[in-house]
Structure formats: C-alpha cells, structure tokens
Amino acid sequence: MITVLGSINMDLIATVTRLPKPGETVAGDHFVTAPGGKGANQALAARRAGATVSMAGACGEDEFAVPALTYLRYEGVNLDRVKSASTATGVALIFVGADGENVIAIVAGANGTVTPDDARTAVSDMKRGDTLMLQMEIPAPAIEAALKAAREKGVTTIVNIAPITPDARRLAEMADIVIANETEFELFCDKANLSNEAREAEMIRINRERKQAIIVTLGADGVVAARNGALSQGHRAGDRAH
Fold it and tell me: What residues are paired with 157 via a beta bridge?
C-alpha cells in the first residue's frame, strides 16, 4: 500500500498574451480550474499506475474542497485521512504566457494546518513494506513526524524535495528515497554547477554513504537513479529504458 501525505490544491490557470509586468494588467484568453497539489498529484499517479493508495492531508471548508478531491475520489484513492479545516482550500494561481512561460503563486490554505498528529495518524495503519510518499508543500514538523513514525514501523519513505524549503535538505536526509530535479539536487548536496559526470558521481557517493536511493529528474532527458552503489538511466515515455 502507498500512503501519500501532502498537499491538495485547486489550480486556477489563466492563459494570457504575455506575462504582466509589476502593476500591469494584460488580457487573458482562456481560464480553467483543475485539481492539483504535489501530494494529490503523487496519489493520483500512483493510483493510475495500479497501486492501492491512501491520501492524507487537508481541504478547506469552501467551494474548492469538493472539486479538489474529484479525481482522487473517482480513481478510488482512499480519502479517510483527509481532514476538513476551517480555512480555505489550498490554491495555485497560474499565469501562462503565449510563449509557454509561466508564473505561479501558491496559497497553502488548509495544507498549512497539517500537524504532526495528523502525520502520525496517517502512518498508524501502515505496515512494514508499505510506502510513504511526501513532498514539501505541508509544514516541516508534519513531514518530520511522518518520517520518524514510518522508520519505527519499517515503512519505506520517499521524499520529493520540491518545492525547496529551508527544511528540505534536513528532512530529505531522513528518507529512504530522495527525488529531485537537477537544481534541487545541487541544493540538496550543496554543490553548484555540476556537470553530468560530477552530478552522477555525487549521487553515487550519497547513495553509498547514506544508503539512500537518489533519483534526479532531467526534464526531456529522462531520469537517472543511484541505488545499490550503481546508476540506472530512464528515458522519456516511448523511448527504451535500461
């Protein structure tokens, strides 16, 4: 079983002719809302991959609470550990320019009410061999409590360190598996401007010293992982992986 403890948002997405400058108003030509949040996205992806998934987190008491959970509910994700908080549901406000560039503002809302007690409750029904997935869009004390509780139960932990926060590096060091993009990995290992070879060497070093699996996403170039002292490479969907 996979339990995801993390953020649940509604994404409010506007397409504009170009991104506005400070104080400027520009015309938009399209607007949609969509369920989001890094935690909910993890849960949905895991469920669609065929896993049994439980989502833990918080929604607000507003008009976004129901649609934010629509996809998860439809796909059969267990929502028993999603609490209702007396605040707004988390939102991401996204402007997308005609050239594809975007700017995003995130308002944590109910995500900011997730507590260490919520985290321990989310882990309480898990068993050795289960998997706990986390990201950095809920408060650090809740993430830390979840990691500690999972370790005591022999639960495998995965932390995606996006978005980078002041606590991301410390918390990620507590996990069994760390996921980062290239920039986030440099912050995680405190080394800048790494070449491909240097990055891979650093991944191997961390894997061997800390016994953590390290996964770095490379955008269109796929993904590379360090585990069991060796590297493995993945490619974009449709390409051969090895």
Answer: 132
